[in-house]
Amino acid sequence: MKFLLIAFIASFSAMSCQDKYPDLQDGLYAEFKTNKGTMVAKLFYDKVPVTVANFVGLAEGTHPKLADSLKGKPFYNGITFHRVMDKFMIQGGDPTGTGMGSAGYKFYSEFDTSLSHDKAGILSMANSGGLDTNGSQFFITEVPKTNLDAFYADGSFKNCNMPRTSCHAVFGELVKGLEVQDTISNVKTNNTKPVKPVIIEELNIIRKGADAKAFDAAKVFTEKEPLLPQRLEEQQAAMQEKIKEQAKIAGKEFIEKNKDMEGEVIESPTGLVMILNKAKDGVTPKSTDNVLIQSTGYFENGNLFYTTDAEVAKATNTYNEQADKAGAYEPFPMIYNESATLVPGFREAMLKMNIGDKARIFVPSYLGYGPNGRAPRIPPNANLVFDLEIVGIK
């Protein structure tokens, strides 16, 4: 009888939540009732179902990975926002309130490139780095923070396993109570911890419409969570194909832009494009030779980012006398074989050249510095253009 009474009360409470917000469209929502006010977030269960299932399962006490002692209990009720940073975000979901606690398990990251930390009120997973450290902790942004996205502006993915690389999974957005988030962000803190606890008194899940009501969090998490690494691999592979297709178009544009340049146009199967001006009677270096290379690098828009030629530097107003004295404007030596420590596209071009040859080359990003770029000069996924000349052998 007691169990039936509890079930009735829970059911009545859930129905009350559904009726409280008649203006909400069909969907899945989370109501955060705090001692500072109430916020309501829409949950993107159609785009990141596992992450939402994790959150909903914890909120309703139905998560399959919860310890038996926690099952059937709303996990988030009574937990605090333990980390508050004004003009950044508020973070909660740790039962210990220290930032070190969890629900007793971790799971893999799930991303959708249409979901970004691009505005205030974004609900996202907190983690301790890498791709497999998600648990119960979450945060809500106060301002846009796209540097927290797991992908770059073009949709290509970061290397999330690199140290100090932020990759957080967006799974919701505030649709009510943004002013409450701001109020919480402004509370007095001691080393980011609120001096007076900010408590999540209740975290209720609201289902609007047939699809949301049919969303079975425990089932979704159990069935789809093991597939998340494969999903990310497929997303990354699809993006790489897209980058290669875009590079093909850029390569054709490079040829057209340089159509009046003297030399043979070489389109490599790898994606490298060369306009090669061969020297008369140019000698082919041996694989044991260190050739001397004069080179200048440009972005696709024509802006110079690097040169070993002082005259080019002066002509582009990038000349640095101190750099000149340090020997920066001199051809550099490089071993003439596949072990050359050059980006793949540059190395491939070099190995097609003889002494005295000159070339202008188009290096697609995946044959250059790739998704990581090379800070501070080369941004992620940048196609590059180089002017090369092999001027001799060291």
In short:
This protein has helices spanning 2-20, 49-60, 178-185, 210-214, 217-224, 228-257, 310-315, 321-325, 344-350; strands at 27-34, 37-43, 81-85, 89-92, 122-125, 138-141, 170-176, 189-190, 193-194, 200-208, 264-267, 273-277, 290-299, 304-307, 332-335, 358-363, 384-393. The chain has 394 residues and is an alpha+beta fold.
| Spatial gap, N to C terminus | 91 Å
Shape: elongated
Q: What's the CATH architecture of the largest domain?
A: Beta Barrel
Task: Look at the helices and sheets and give the structural class.
Answer: alpha+beta
CATH class of the largest domain: Mainly Beta
CATH topology heading of the largest domain: Cyclophilin
Rg value: 28 Å
Give the overall average pLDDT: 94
- Series of H and E elements: HEEHEEEEEHEEEHHHEEEEHHEHEE
Please give the number of β-strands: 17
Question: What percent of residues adopt helix (DSSP H or I)?
Answer: 25-40%
Main β-sheet, spatial strand arrangement: 3-4-6-5-7-2-1-10
Biggest pleated sheet: 8 strands, antiparallel
Oligomer: single chain
| Number of discrete helical segments | 9
For CATH, the homologous superfamily of the largest domain is named as Cyclophilin-like
Low-confidence stretches: 1-10
| Range of strand content | 15-25%
Counting structural domains, the number is: 2
Characterization of this structure:
- The protein has helices at residues 2-20, 49-60, 178-185, 210-214, 217-224, 228-257, 310-315, 321-325, 344-350, and strands spanning 27-34, 37-43, 81-85, 89-92, 122-125, 138-141, 170-176, 189-190, 193-194, 200-208, 264-267, 273-277, 290-299, 304-307, 332-335, 358-363, 384-393.
- The chain folds into 2 domains: 17-234, Cyclophilin (Beta Barrel); 258-393, Chitinase A, domain 3 (Roll).
- The radius of gyration is 28 Å and the shape is elongated.
- A hairpin with a 3-residue loop joins strand 3 (81-85) and strand 4 (89-92).
- The chain is α+β, with helices and mostly antiparallel strands and 394 residues long.
- The protein starts with a helix and ends with a strand.
- It contains 9 helices and 17 strands.
- 25% of the residues lie in helices and 24% in strands.
- Mean pLDDT is 94; it is low at 1-10.
- The strands form 3 sheets. Strands 3-4-6-5-7-2-1-10 form an 8-stranded antiparallel sheet. Strands 11, 12, 13, 14, 15, 16 and 17 form a 7-stranded antiparallel sheet that branches.
